[in-house]
Description:
Blueprint: H1 2-11, H2 19-28, H3 30-47, H4 49-52, E1 71-76, E2 82-87, H5 98-133, H6 135-149, H7 153-164, H8 168-194, H9 198-205, H10 210-218, H11 223-247, H12 258-265, H13 274-301, H14 303-309
Antiparallel strand pairs: 1-2
Helix pairs in contact: 1-9, 3-5, 3-13, 5-6, 5-8, 5-11, 5-13, 6-8, 7-8, 8-11, 9-10, 11-12, 11-13, 12-13
Amino acid sequence: MAAESVADAALEPSGGRSPVPLVRRVLANGAARLGGGTLLLLVLAAMAAPWLGTIDPTAIDPASGNLLPGTSGEFTSLAGDTFQHLFVMGSDSLGRDIWSRVLYGARVSMTVGITVAALSVAGGILVGLAAGYFRRLDGVLMRLMDGMMAIPGILFAITLVAAWGGSLWTIIVAIAIPEIPRVARLLRSVVLTVREEPYVEAAIALDTPTLRILLRHILPNAIAPLIVQGTYVCAAAILVEAILSFLGVGMPADIPTWGNIMAEGRMQFTQYPHNVLVPGAFLALTVLAVNILGDGLRDTLDPKFNKRGG
Length: 310
């Protein structure tokens, strides 16, 4: 019991018990507020796509093709109904509304980014904890991770999508697997350091169950770097998904994504640049917001960085 008290007390300075001070520190950071606020607005816009979108993103009307942003035109539905429609961000060569397609494309990008970050962090936790705590597994697991990192992530994703088909979950898995080694190596380095702390050695001496040591005394010390790493993984996943869709090996063409919107508009870029610039601007803004949020979280959660900055 004495060792448990020592261990619990040693974890207190990290703020692991109460999230309130941590949230306050994050909100006090300007970069975290800017990146988080921008990202929140983009997520809300993606969730509200059925209401913010001006028309069905897959509706085709060749007569309204390649309209410039802000142009009003007559849109004829498949049912034969004709009505005036304001193309806020213009239309593509098939007369599909760019604004609506970008909003629905945000849903795919956000889903891929958040899910890939969650899966890669979960996989990295399992491998990193095992490699850092169990010395016999360290060599085997790290050589396996090194082998996975030797394969370019984009090539691995293209191969897996080509083999399994371009479904949402295939793309998520194809992007998440190459990110696991990076998270695992980060967590392993933290575990190797924390494992030598006196309170962990005391818990081991008192024959505390291994799972309890890992989850209660070691993992909480790695939460901060894992959160920061997760934001960078999210940004990378959004970019990779856009690249796959741009290359034609991502989501099916009938599902709007930022990548395939840009791919469809690239042939007419000189005449109608809005087909590429509008989804490209949303992609750049999203990735920038996630990276700024990650920098803000790093500044707030990494004590060593704060000391260097001071």
